[in-house]
């Protein structure tokens, strides 16, 4: 584990060093990079920022009222009736409720 982290560190340091060397190289005179550098930065051409207005005072939210307790008529029943499942048509035919066989068939001895 330690070896892999050292290798990763070396790789990224080498990569960063190469990027810095590439940035230091002087581009050709007709390159767009030099033309961009001769122009003043776009921030200097913009108007100075307007003075910051103080934020308006924040109003606290109105207090939340607790809900009123329900009367006995409105209360939800504690034990609602359970769902009644519809009987399948197959169950009507198989009223002896024999469980279905699952798995491989038993080998017959011939």
Automatic annotation (TrEMBL):
Region annotation (Disordered) ranges: 17-110
Tell me what this protein is called: Uncharacterized protein
Q: Where is the composition biased (Pro residues)?
A: 39-66
Give the species. Rhizophagus clarus
Q: Where is the composition biased (Basic residues)?
A: 99-110
